[in-house]
Prior knowledge:
Elements: H1 2-7, H2 12-20, H3 24-36, H4 39-42, H5 47-63, H6 72-78, H7 93-101, H8 110-124, E1 126-127, H9 137-143, E2 145-146, H10 148-161, E3 166-171, E4 181-188, E5 191-195, H11 210-213, E6 220-224, E7 236-239, E8 243-247, H12 249-252, E9 255-263, E10 274-281, E11 284-292, E12 298-304, E13 306-314, E14 317-325, E15 330-336, E16 346-348, H13 354-364, H14 395-403, H15 407-416, H16 421-430, H17 436-444, H18 448-453, H19 456-468, H20 476-484, H21 497-504, H22 512-526, E17 528-529, H23 543-549, E18 551-552, H24 554-567, E19 572-574, E20 581-584, E21 589-592, E22 601-603, E23 617-618, E24 620-629, E25 632-633, H25 637-640, E26 644-650, E27 653-656, E28 661-665, E29 668-674, E30 678-685, E31 691-698, E32 705-711, E33 736-738, E34 744-746, H26 747-750, E35 755-761, H27 766-784, E36 787-793, H28 802-805, E37 814-817, H29 830-833, E38 843-847, E39 853-858, H30 864-871
Parallel strand pairs: 1-2, 9-15, 17-18, 22-23, 24-32, 35-36, 36-37
Antiparallel strand pairs: 3-4, 3-6, 4-5, 6-8, 7-8, 9-12, 10-11, 10-13, 13-14, 16-31, 19-20, 20-21, 21-22, 24-25, 24-29, 26-27, 26-30, 28-29, 30-31, 33-34, 35-38, 38-39
Helix pairs in contact: 2-3, 2-5, 7-10, 8-10, 9-10, 15-16, 16-19, 17-19, 21-24, 22-24, 23-24, 27-30
Amino acid sequence: MTAALERAGDNRPEIEEFLASQQGERLEAARFLVANLPTVDLVTMSAKDLQENLDYAFAAYEDLPWSGKVPFNLFLHYVLPPRVTEEPYQPWRPILFRELKDELKGCRTMTDAAIAINRWCGQRVRFKQTEFRDQNALSTLKSGIGRCEEMMIVSIDAMRSMGIPARACSAPWWVVNDNNHAWVEIWADGKWHYIGGCEPADALDKAWFSSAAQRAGIVTSYMFGSPDDHPTGEAVARKYENMAVINSTAVYAGTDRVTVTVTDSEGNPVADCPVSLSAFNYGALRSLLRQNTDDQGRTVLTVGMGDYFLSAGNDKGRAYAIVHSTPGADTLMNLELTPGAAPPAEFWLHYPTPAEAARAKARFSAGDSTRPVAEYTPQLPDPPQPDFYEPGKDPQLDELVEQSGHADQWKAILQDSFANWHETAMTLKAIPAELREDLFQFMQRTRRVDRLELKAPTALDHVSWAAAHRPRNINDSLYYDYILNGRIEYEHLTPWRYRIASLLSGLKADDPLETAKNVNKYFAENITDDSNRNFGRATRMNPVQVLTARRGKAREIAVAAVGVLRTFSIPARKSTTRSTVEFYDGGQWRVFDPLVEDSIKILAEDNAETETDKEDVELPVKLHLRFVKDGKTFTDWGKITPHFDISRFSNGGWEPLRRTDGGPQGDEIVITLPADEYLVSAGVRNGNGDPYVRTWMVNPQAGENVTITIPFDLPQDAGIFRFEKVRKLESLPGISLPRPDGSTASLSEVVQDHAVLLYFFRLDHEPSVRMLRIINDAAPELNSRGAEVVCVLLPAEGGISLDKALSGAAPAFTLVKENTDTPAYMHLSPAEKGGESYWKLPSVLFLNKGGDVIMWTEGYDLNLGTLLHYAARQVR
């Protein structure tokens, strides 16, 4: 509590006023809330905001039909919090409470209510990709669109408004494709369940991503507050000062328990060493989960099926390994730290097929297969039609738009504001005519989230102050981009110029360089760097919030320093890849670290020689990345850019840079960076989504050029699976195959000579028929690789003819007709499934010469042709 009050900075009186007005159970809840709020909320929320959040949370906790069923510890962690992840705070509780309370009349169970609430959310929000910053629930409801995390936020806030414990859950990064997903976990009627946020379903634990989650490397759930304060008994994977991460992977998938031991070069255990488990996604080795070692140098990770990049590191060195996770196993991994260690240059990361993952889930998952369904379904009225901008709705606005000289752009801005267009209209009407061009330029530099959240006073704060203090010697480009622009990086757009001017006017000097020196000195002496504090997720602080708290993460502090310089009419920007400040002194760009006094240097735009003393110049490095495919230069940038990235080592793993300066130049991509150590990574996936990863570790000196040639091909021996099957092939199917000379031979005899692909199908089974055509199309390539294709026709009642199934094409395979529909290989061993037959048509079994399994998959898969193409490369 003492630390929280200190972090509140100048807003401390508001926090103390809120606490002083509570007693009993509410005081306990208030103290828990304040102790665990992120700094951005401690410096922003008023006593009124905090009281309203508390009052409505207790109203839901005490006054609804399921009151008394929610334990107090779950209420504190999963109902009381005013935020979900990184969305900016808005007072959503009273709005959602009033909207939903009457709609849920008749719901007697939490399951009924949760299903109805999610249906209400789904009526109002649909999926559409937005941007990196999270919208809050009210902004998403205004627009009617959101990406998965924003849909999750809406559903969680709606659940919490009705007293139902809810939390964020996600696969931080999928392992077989370049993306991730977030969803909702709710506690209903005594158990945790999952739903897709704003994705209505008639039952809990039922969602489109259920199958995808079975292949996840890690699934994490998030707890607000310290798990040591009012513990819930859940298995915590990582603790922060104000939140915790719960490893929920075992609920969704078959898992391995991986014990990692980290030692130094002399074999001594390394305590408190960050360990990172990563997957390849969007061109980088992205961390799925980070944990620190205990006093014995150990940490235990619960991991989904497949291969993962394991890393650890601190000031003693780094270590890497590929961990192969097998469901139900207890895998031991040892990492020895070595100074300057580089990752492997090339490696595969292999993962199960959907069918393999489903079998592992059935055998090893801790999840419950029952799906609670609604006993009562309230009739929800259709939501009101949203009020979006259209020409003709506001004649005065239309006239101003047409007179602006930017009519089309203004209409696009207003439409992009969705239901918030009235605020933009109010601003345009209120601003003096001579400032309308500046307002237009300001709005052009906003993005959709800004336009959804914009309030008229925010735009007026920025435009009126900047215009009144515009320097005469600054051209339009510098002025619009680096003085007038109200957003600096990923913070949400808020008013800060007049407030900064009132707080720090004494820092302004006549000369821009002297002003920058004063700002550098002030920040170094007065602002505390919280980068090493172990806080959880929260909205990025804006300049005024940093100055109010007198602390922040390094990147937030850099943003605040940029805001101060822009307030004083000095063109400024945050460095793209570091937490430093770049500013224009009237003749050249300079750079400084706001946390290091007297750190101003000239920022060289390239690595050319300069007449200035090199100690006062920051020279960049340039990475020249060239790509080749099939032995030729490859310049399809749309296909290249999602599959390579540049990272720096941090917190036990390689952390991708969010942004870099540079892009395509001729037949290469040129990236400009500060001198530092980097990892360039790139990868190509096979048909199963398994990536083949290549890495290059570089440590160029200032001014140096580095050229890297990156292949965009899979290796020639690329297969699909190197994965130990969950279900064992105890013996080969007892099938006799016709030979060209008219004789027959057993399958076990044939595979001693060459590879064989077996396809089991029925002609009365539509998926079997559809995939038969894929098999027939793939057969020539498989034959050219030395593999025989055998289609095993199982008995069926009715169905179409083989000729019709192939649409008249000639069979390119050997046909075998079976008199049983339960081939021997389809049975699981008694130890695994009690002798129960567990298989699904159509089924493909691809055996290499000698009988080893190359590929084994079941069920309908439109991607089968691609899988077979890559599997053929494994044929011996």
